[in-house]
Design a protein that fits this description.
CATH architecture of the largest domain: 3-Layer(aba) Sandwich
Strand order of the largest sheet: 2-1-3-4
Structural class: alpha/beta
Low-confidence stretches: none
Distance between the termini: 59 Å
CATH superfamily of the largest domain: Nitrogenase molybdenum iron protein domain
Mean pLDDT: 92
Largest sheet: 4 strands, parallel
Bound molecules: zinc ion
Number of domains: 2
CATH topology of the largest domain: Rossmann fold
CATH class of the largest domain: Alpha Beta
Radius of gyration: 21 Å
Length: 326
């Protein structure tokens, strides 16, 4: 009888699980860490171009039934507004308790000064590709925890604690357990965000104690790389990569022949060894440039699940650093 009763309880708890719909895989991964008991649906896959998506009817049904909708925002998901218009779910519309914009409180890069789309600018609110900087991920976790706390206030303390634990885990992955144990992850993150970490560690003789992604990415400082789309601003800012050019002439527009010639010149002049192409873009032109110059084409994940290695957010950041440092 007890097992029958527990089975009923289990069914009841499943039936009442909070339904979270996230637009992007990295948000789904973090939502799962903040609200492990919720049922989570992710609309795009890591192998999809996040700018463009036509959700299937099955996914649309999830949006209609969602208690919480989590999006990146900043005009990344150009399809999200229309999706919310047709979902018929007033609880999750922007401004409602069930709506979360994960990029609130993040420092935005590349905010355009002139708002015409003449330059092919996809992103008038600034660069939205925030998740390539691991230090932005805890901010998204905090925003999701705040959203969960609005719709499920009885468990608010749990969501806040989970977001805090995620921040600690990111800090440890970023700076290594040794230095985090010695100085505290939050202080290290603040120093890194104000671009004062290297200087600070050098002045205290602590550089050798730096571990984690910061150590793994140290060889990227000043390293010349050609990227496909302008989706790397936050990674570049965090790891100090030197951007030599973009395969796309203008964001969202395929390269012209003249631009390809220009890239060939840039690769040679800057001794570029790596051309990045995110796994959902056509690698034809990067491969051609690689063949003509000897530069290596690194096919990288655009998000969690974008390559077989990028199994979760931590493995995703690992996979990027591996691809760019090898
Ligand atoms: Zn973009």
């Amino acid at each position: 009888m007890i097992s029958f009763f527990s089975a009923l309880l289990l069914l009841a708890s499943q039936a009442s699980a909070t339904e979270i719909v996230c637009t992007l895989p990295w948000l789904g991964d973090i939502a799962h860490r903040v609200a492990p008991d919720a049922h989570i649906t992710t609309l795009s896959r890591g192998t999809d171009d996040p700018h463009f998506l036509s959700p299937t009817p099955a996914l649309m049904a999830r949006v209609s039934a969602a208690d919480l909708y989590v999006e990146n925002g900043l005009n990344l998901e150009l399809w999200s507004e229309r999706l919310l218009d047709s979902a018929g779910n007033p609880k999750i519309r922007p401004g409602q308790p069930g709506y979360v914009k994960a990029t609130v409180n993040m420092v935005r890069l590349e905010i355009p000064t002139d708002l015409t789309r003449a330059k092919g600018d996809l992103h008038p609110e600034g660069n939205p590709h925030v998740w390539t900087d691991p230090l932005n991920a805890p901010v998204a976790a905090d925003n999701i925890a705040a959203g969960m706390s609005r719709i499920d206030p009885a468990n608010a303390a749990k969501y806040t604690a989970n977001a805090k634990a995620f921040r600690a885990k990111i800090n440890e992955a970023m700076f290594g357990a040794d230095l985090v144990g010695f100085m505290g992850g939050d202080l290290l993150a603040r120093l890194a965000q104000s671009n004062k970490l290297d200087e600070f560690l050098a002045s205290k003789g602590l550089t050798a104690r730096l571990g984690g992604w910061a150590k793994k990415g140290a060889s990227l400082k000043g390293k010349p790389i050609i990227f496909y789309h302008q989706s790397w601003a936050y990674f570049i800012n965090r790891f100090g990569v030197k951007v030599v050019g973009f395969v796309e002439d203008r964001p969202g527009i395929p390269p012209t022949a003249a631009h390809r010639d220009e890239l060939l010149g840039l690769i040679k002049a800057n001794n570029v060894k790596v051309i990045e192409v995110t796994s959902f873009y056509d690698p034809k032109i990067p491969n051609l440039l690689g063949q003509q110059t000897g530069a290596k084409v690194a096919v990288v994940a655009g998000d969690v699940g974008g390559t077989p290695q990028a199994t979760d957010y931590f493995a995703y950041i690992d996979s990027l650093l591996t691809a760019f440092t090898q």
